[in-house]
Amino acid sequence: MERLEQVTAELATTETELSGPLRIGAYPSAARAVVPAAIARLAALHPRLEPMVEEIDPADVAEQIRAGRLDAALVNDYDLVPTMPDPAIDGTALFDEPMYLAAPASRPVGDPADPIAAADELPWIVGRPDTLCHDMAVRACQAAGYSPRIRHYIDDYSTVLALVAVGQGVALIPGLAAADPPAGVKLTRLGIHRRTRLAYRRGAAGHPAIRALVEAMEHSRPPGPG
Questions:
Q1: How far are the Cα atoms of 2, 47, 93, 148 from residue 200, in angstroms, in the given order?
Q2: Is the CA virtual torsion 186, 192, 194, 197 positive or negative?
Q3: Can you tell me the distance from the alpha carbon of 74 to that of 92, in angstroms, rounded to the nearest whole number?
Q4: How many helices (H) does the chain have, and how many strands (E)?
């Protein structure tokens, strides 16, 4: 399969202009913060290319790429939830983000030196149990010595922050989702990170459409942690 992808990429390099569909998967916060600028750049540089974006959880990406339903996808992993290597999937690292603990400003976490440990008696807002962000929150709490008391299961970070703002609990928020928190939320930067890469089938790295997508994503990625 890798050799087939390489041959396909070699044939594609003989074309004078990129054209046709390019099926891209993206997790929600990247779909909002990174993908639009990348798609705009692709449209400007390769007007006959047809990028088609599908929102998808990173845990489901490998199967979709192996099956040919996606050509590439933005995926992420966390310090405490690394991604297991897949022999059929290759990728290009794009950016890292710091993680934050979001807490109600009316009930701030007491110990800024170890905010997750200090949140042991507070309710938590986490993603659905089959998502990486859920596993990250649970493992971060376990590393601090306790299991979180989960009150809400929410995947959308805007909704998570809205619930934090009205005192419904604390949550872990990645940098892409922490840029403009609502009033009533206090963010504390943590020493853990989320990493994002562009995944595609092994052997496809030389395909001109994949190279163009990598370039557009690198051009559109957020600045490094400040």
A1: 11, 22, 12, 35
A2: positive
A3: 10
A4: 8, 8
Q: What is the pLDDT of residues 67-76, one digit of tens each?
A: 999 999 999 9
CA distances from 77 to 26, 40, 96, 134 (A): 13, 26, 10, 12
Mean pLDDT lowest among 13-22, 97-106, 122-131: 13-22
Predicted TM-score (pTM) above 0.90: no
Q: Is 16's pLDDT higher than 60?
A: no
Residues 6+ apart with CB under 8 A from 208: 9, 12, 13, 15, 18
Residue 110 has pLDDT above 80, yes or no: no
Q: Is 113 exposed, middle or buried (0-12, 13-18, 19+ CB in 10 A)?
A: exposed
| DSSP calls for 144-182 | TTS--EEEEE---HHHHHHHHHTTS-BEEEEGGG-SSPP
Q: Which residues pair with 90 in a beta bridge?
A: 200
Task: Kindly state the tokens that stand for 96.
Answer: 């890292």
199 with 73: CB under 8 angstroms? yes
